[in-house]
Amino acid sequence: MNKVYRITDRIADRERKRQIQNHRQKIETIQRAVQCSSCHFKCAMCGLHLEGEGTSCPHALSFQDFNLCENCREEFEDFLKTRKGEKPPEVFWHNQEWLNLWSAWLNYQEAIKEFKKSQEFQQLITETED
Prior knowledge:
With 130 residues, the protein is an all-alpha fold. It has five helices and no strands. It is elongated and about 65 Å long.
């Protein structure tokens, strides 16, 4: 009985493989976007090439796993202070649009992270490696 296959599973598997073949370029684009967004060799905000140690976010921010250059890290820390209600150093560009920019960026980082953990993305990676 171990060799009995469910026909619906086989049909679904065949359909996934057909979709992968038909959408290979889109899949490669998605994989690059996810991979490049979490590259440990560049700043996750500005894209600056990073070298040396001390470029990753503080471990106290355990829900994020991205790297920032020194300047972006300082801006991000100011953003976090502002969100907590603390008063970071006054800089004229720290306005509502600046807050919106960092909020949107943080939401984007979280969305990428969640998408990478999704069953469908994991399946996509597995099936394209074959």
